[in-house]
Design brief:
This protein is mostly helical. The chain is built from 18 helices and no strands. Helix 10 runs antiparallel to helix 11. The chain is globular.
Amino acid sequence: MASMAAGPDHLFNLRNSFYLGAYQAAINNSEIPNLSQEDIVERDCLVHRSYIALGSYQLVINEIDEASATPLQAVKLLAMYLSSPENKESTISSLKEWLADPTAGSNATVRLIAGTIFMHEEDYSEALKHTHSGGTMDLHALNVQIFIKMHRSDYAEKQLRVMQQFDEDHTLTQLASAWLNLAVGGSKIQEAYLIFQDFSEKYPMTSLILNSKAVCCMHMGNFEEAETLLLDALNKDAKDPETLANLVVCNIHVGKQSSRYLSQLKLSHPEHVLVKRAASAEDNFERALQSFA
């Protein structure tokens, strides 16, 4: 996890790959020599979080055993939480036991995973209980995301300022700035687009960068460019949930058929927020029809 202490960073490239969505590259390039024991644990956490991002939950669950370090055990909890809806309650119960332990509960990775899970649950106050004190760039970046979801861009901006004071050029600082610009909207959308454009010029293109640029384009009303970017993203990963969801939205705006992308999203990611909203809209429509029957 990106520490806020000075010193040589042997995991810089690995972290960057993970932050920018180059998950397979992070896995492929994880054999780094002369790492300290602390760096080895962090390297393994990044690799397993990359597998989780690729949907390989069971691999992570199988590889991390009870003898593994605390941060890795926390990553395993995230894999268990995401692997199936049936696991959620028991996983959250286990997580709360960990958080009640003073040693485990103060671990930065445990706090990050706790914040991530409670953010998924939309329990933002519980998430912030474990992340608000920061201490790492990852935790501050997660705080920015949580405050944006709470529609509190003022608090998100305070977190961003902390990150900027530490390292204005850090990848997470730039990403957090772009997320906040998107949330604020208006003329800030162009600033967000330029940040993602800069990433696309410096690093290999990923679905995450392509989707981020596409979202900016849609906000600016440029749906044709957005569609081109999203189709590029689809070629990289045909099952990526954000690509499919953004293609549904984009196609609706340009008057194209979007049902195939929505069907793919329902099959591969039934818990996605767009799937739930579509189902809710369908239910409301059916009820409205019945009231006129």
